[in-house]
Structure prediction request, 137 residues.
Amino acid sequence: MTETIFDKILSGAIPCHRVYEDEHVLAFLDIGPVSRGHTLVIPKERRAHLHELSDDSAAALGRALPRIARAVLAATGATAYNVLQNNGAEAHQAVFHVHFHIIPRIENRGLVIQWDAGSLDGAAELLVAMREALDEQ
Prediction:
């Protein structure tokens, strides 16, 4: 895996504004925030995509994200926020180290989303394939 800016932050080669840190997780302010309080949450485990994480890292992220979200809300006064996580270039991932964005919605600042909903055609076959994949794990 190619070294990313997050690896450099984790090693201390690049400074950051640390919000939270534990054995498995680091959270810090985004240097190009979409809104005030925009925070990045990363695992210390080096993986490009969410599905590649160990169960321990995934669980640690799951424990940390709500705590960090509460801190973002308390510090910014926001009452709404988005949690964004992209996997792969086609999904707009720019840094290939798993990361979550906590983006508070403050007045007209925050994440803007366009949702192009489709249909649920073929759900029965999809469910079979997904359940088989889960059984194989």
